[in-house]
């Protein structure tokens, strides 16, 4: 740990966990763990309205979790780092253990 109060090392982790705090964002990350997807593919798979999916992709992009690249007229989204997919998979698995 560095810094005066020892918590600076955890700030990035806290920001990541805040970005993942919504169930739909966890679902988006899980879906992107399978590969690149366009918004319409995520809308279809998650059965969520397009504006909602786009809003949550914006949050994930702002947090550095996903990146978008132009694919013709669409933007294909992918995970920036596969570690996030493992974090989400572990969290979902852990939550299922309590049931």
* Integer-rounded radius of gyration: 15 Å
**Roughly what fraction of the amino acids lie in strands?**
5-15%
Give the overall shape, derived from the CA principal axes: globular
The portion of residues assigned to helices is: 55-70%
| Cα end-to-end separation | 36 Å
What structural class do the secondary elements suggest? alpha+beta
Average pLDDT rating:
91
Reading the helices and strands in chain order gives HHEHHEEH
Polypeptide structure, described:
This protein is α+β, with helices and mostly antiparallel strands and about 100 residues long. It is about 60% helix and about 15% strand. It contains five helices and three strands. A hairpin with a 2-residue loop joins strand 2 (about 65-70) and strand 3 (about 75-80). Helix 2 packs across helix 5 (about 80-95). The N and C termini lie far apart (about 35 Å). The mean pLDDT is about 90.
């Amino acid at each position: 740990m560095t810094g005066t109060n020892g918590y600076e090392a955890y700030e990035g982790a806290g920001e990541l966990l805040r970005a993942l705090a919504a169930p739909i964002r966890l679902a988006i990350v899980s879906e992107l763990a399978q590969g690149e997807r366009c918004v319409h593919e995520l809308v279809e798979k998650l059965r969520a309205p397009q504006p909602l999916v786009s809003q949550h992709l914006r949050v994930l992009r702002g947090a550095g979790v996903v990146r978008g690249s132009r694919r013709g007229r669409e933007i294909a989204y992918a995970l920036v780092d596969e570690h996030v997919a493992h974090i989400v998979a572990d969290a979902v698995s852990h939550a299922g253990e309590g049931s």
